[in-house]
Structure formats: C-alpha cells, structure tokens
Design a protein that fits this description.
Layout: E1 2-4, E2 15-17, H1 18-25, H2 30-45, H3 52-67, H4 78-85, E3 90-97, H5 98-104, H6 108-125, E4 133-141, E5 149-153, E6 158-161, E7 169-177, E8 182-188
Parallel strand pairs: 3-6
Antiparallel strand pairs: 1-2, 3-5, 4-7, 7-8
Length: 195
C-alpha cells in the first residue's frame, strides 16, 4: 500500500511505501538505529544489559539530539516500540545474576575434572596435610540483587547481568585445613583497613 508523501509533509516525487513513510517519521534513521542496536547487544554481551528506561533516558535520546537538539524527551513507549520494530535482533529478557550462571557450572563432569587435576598435583608434590587449605568466599550485596526486564539478543532465554558497581558488597572468607583445623572466617566490609 502506498501513501501520498505530500500528505505526510515529505514532498517527494510520487509516493512512498508505509515502511518508507514510517522511517521518515522516525526519530532515528536506519544507520542510527543499527548503531543503537549494536551498542545494546554489546552491553548485553558484557553483562550490563540495558532496560527500556535506560535506552530511552541515556542512549537513544543522545543519538536523536545530535540531529534534533530541540527534542528533550522521547515518548514513554518509544523504547518498547523500538525493540518491537527490531525484534529480529532484540528481545526483552529477564536478567539473571552471574552467581546463578556460576552455580550452573557445578556439574559432575566439572567436579570430577577438578579432583583429577588436584589428585595429580597431590601425587606429584605430596604436600603435608597441615599445608593444604580450602577457602571459599561468598559475597552479599547490601542493596540486594533483583531481577529486572532487560534487552538482549533475540532467541536468548535469560540475560546475565553484573551487579551495579555502586552497591556495597560484604564478603565472607571461610577457610579450613585438611587436618581438621580451621581459621576464623574473615568478614570484609568496604573500608580502608583490615581488622
């Protein structure tokens, strides 16, 4: 279906298709849209997926203002329609903390591989039991880690997300020796000195 371009305020010779008409009315041209899509997907790949609000507030508006400095904000549903329009590349997903991903890596094959390597090192060097320690650390973000709807690759089931660096984290180190003795746990808060 063709639309008369003069009725849209785009005086071109002849008519344009609906897709051409929609692109002419869009805040971003094709090249700008592609740059924004690449940026969104790079952020998702790096573990910092963007939310719809973040796309509108921080990134798309900056691109739009390069050519139209008078535009101060985009519509409340602009990012939703942008993701829908580019659904061959983008999708709304639920974020998942990296701890969940690490936990999924604990499987019988990986555990067996670890103990095979440990056994070969132990057989080669024969360390004393009192010189072998096991340590584990657990991090506890004080701000909490909530799931949120973020934008990532189409076809992905869940998007990994790193925790915000602005949130304080408390770390606990638990250590035990193979001879049965243990070291009191160390609790690490944000600060300058070790107590």
């Amino acid at each position: 279906m063709d639309v008369d371009s003069t009725t849209l305020g785009h005086p071109l010779n002849g008519k344009m298709s609906i897709s051409q008409s929609n692109e002419a009315k869009s805040h971003l041209n094709q090249a700008e849209s592609e740059v924004l899509i690449v940026f969104i997907l790079k952020m998702a790949d790096r573990g910092f997926p963007l939310t719809l609000q973040k796309i509108v507030a921080d990134y798309a508006l900056q691109v739009v203002q390069e050519n139209s400095p008078g535009i101060q904000k985009l519509g409340i549903n602009w990012a939703h329609w942008f993701v829908t329009k580019h659904s061959d590349h983008l999708a709304s997903l639920w974020s998942s903390g990296l701890d969940t991903v690490w936990a999924a890596a604990i499987n019988p094959e990986n555990v067996k591989h670890y103990f095979d390597i440990l056994g070969s090192v132990y057989a080669k060097y024969e360390p004393c039991l009192e010189n072998i320690y096991g340590m584990d650390e657990s991090g506890f973000p004080l701000g909490g880690s909530e799931r949120e709807c973020v934008i990532g690759h189409q076809g992905t089931k869940c998007q990994k997300k790193r925790c915000d660096g602005d949130k304080e984290n408390v770390t606990v180190l638990a250590t035990i020796c193979t001879d049965g003795t243990s070291v009191p746990p160390a609790v690490i808060f944000k600060g300058q000195n070790f107590m």
